[in-house]
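example protein:
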Amino acid sequence: MKSALFFCALAFAPGAFAASHPFDVHDLVMMNRVSDPRLSPDGEHVAFQMRETDYAENKGVNGIWMLDLSAQGAKPVRLTDKDISASSPRWSADGKSVYYLAQAKGDAYTRVWRMVAISGAKPESETPWPADINTFKLSPDGATMLLSIDVFEDCAEHLCTKRPPQAGLEKTTGRIYDRLFVRHWDVWSDRRRSQLYIAPASTPRGGKGMVALPRLLSKGIDGDIPSKPFGDDTEFAFAPDGKTVYFDVRIAGRSEPWSTNFDVYSVPADGSSAPKNLTAANLAWDAYPRPSRDGKTLYYLAMKMPGFEADRFGIMAMDLATGAVHEVDPHWDRSAGPLQLSADGKTLYTMVDDNGDHALFGVDIASGKATRLVGDGTVTGLAVGAKDLIVAREDFSHPVDLYRYADGKLAQITDVNAARLADVRFSKATWFTFKGWNGDTVHGYAMPPVDAKPGQKYPVAFLIHGGPQGAWTNEFHYRWTPETYAGAGFGVVAINFHGSTGYGQAFTDAISRHWGDRPLEDLQKGYAAALKEFPYLDGSRACALGASYGGYMTYWIAGVWNKPWKCLVDHDGVFDTRMMYYATEELWFEEHENGGTQYDVPANYEKFNPLNHVKDWRVPMLVVHSSHDYRIPIDQGLGAFTALQRRGIPSEFLTFPDESHFVQKPQNSVLWHDTVNAWLRKWTAQ
């Protein structure tokens, strides 16, 4: 076993790379990460979340920052203590205070805190109960707030977040399950559900006695609000008058792992009656409720195909008086994201994948016309004001910063990584198209090494994206950014093969039941087109690498398209499609992609199974797989490594016992990148 201790010598102190240099992983992990911009009610200030890296402690620390938009040239000011991690800034209705989530030193729980924003006074906790708050939302008048809390369903009204062990079983560690999920994403289920509560936004001060428990609104709902593992407060909302609450949820039961039937519910904010299902007629995914300004219409997103997580999300409008529903954007062939309303209530804003960007669109409610407002990169956040918008935006060579969008123009208002980027040299991507499967136009990009010299050829890193219903977009990615490979001296090629998002729903749908043929044809033709168009690419010194579905494809091409490659890198890929069905947690994905269960249609699972082609493997491979990956469990990576070793193929196995499907800890990220780049260099050296 090669020890990771070798790489400890690469640990560094922030600021250690002052000289001009190509961008690398050391720069990557130290970037400040801006997110979640929130405008004050008067539009004079924007609060936002920013993650800074504590490399020595191997973690990111979030803080709440504020920028005065009325003062020209103003710099962001930190509101929260630098020694605690704080997230999710939200303005009070009067604009005087900022609420946020944080776990104070010495406290066992994550709570909602309130700080008088301008004065910087000492923050006060507004959730005194023994419970972690997952996320929250303030009512329009600021008097109450919605809280998501993980509780045991049989005593949710009493806010039961823990259970004492049974007498005589205090030291046992076993758990008994009688239904799935047993584990989800990166955690084992403890049978708690994220339930929705309402409470006063400010805890009464002074006096004696217990503060009343928050009121349960989701009584009788066997599901998580918001959804797990990545749900947030866009999945629930107050009506404008604060009297009704809307939320989306998948009623779980025993069908949870193979169902995508989310529905939108309404419930009185006083909890006087049970939640009512507003979208029961649609057996596919309904989510992200957003009431109109006058409270008469409920906008939300809906898919049409049950059991599919990557169907197109259409924007729906429900007349709350009659229950009549129509689609706002039936002719727009893009899948909408969570919605925000313009100040005048006439436009819905949404962020979508669009031709290699993740762009901001405005959708006219009356006509359904979608207009691209901000593209050329990736929009990650939005705050809507009366006159303008605050946009969080990034691209290949610029981490997220905040921009003001007004009158069709975009102006940068923060530059939080200016010092770190001052001496960094980046490459520049060029997008290209070619004819792929079925003669369709397929997009990709190529990126030369930093400081590439005219007439010189360089080894190639051929990147394969995951999903598979995902895409390579113009973004500053913290796990698979092409700039780290370009900075290491490689030319980069990436293809948005059939199955990718942002090119229309038919293009996305084309990959289902075709994992091994249509996208492979795109990859082969795209690689050939790139070699022809970009003379700096040395096709005789090329390695292919991918993660998740991209890892599946790496295993697949190891057996069916291995001639071009000097080496392969597989991160958390699917090695055996048969066992993947029984080991993964989200079965709806496997069942849709393969046209049914493995026991009903076994031939579908075998058709493109990489395991069946191990006899043809010959290319050296680095396998990376982590212990807490329950989407594609670690046995998939171990099985592939066993196959490589048994066949005598040069191979290495890198594993992280504390990571999930993603490698996120700063020092682990450095080790990952250094190991991958060392592998590429080893096999592409001249």
Q: What stands out?
A: DSSP finds twelve helices and 40 strands in the chain. Confidence is low (pLDDT under 50) at residues 1-17.
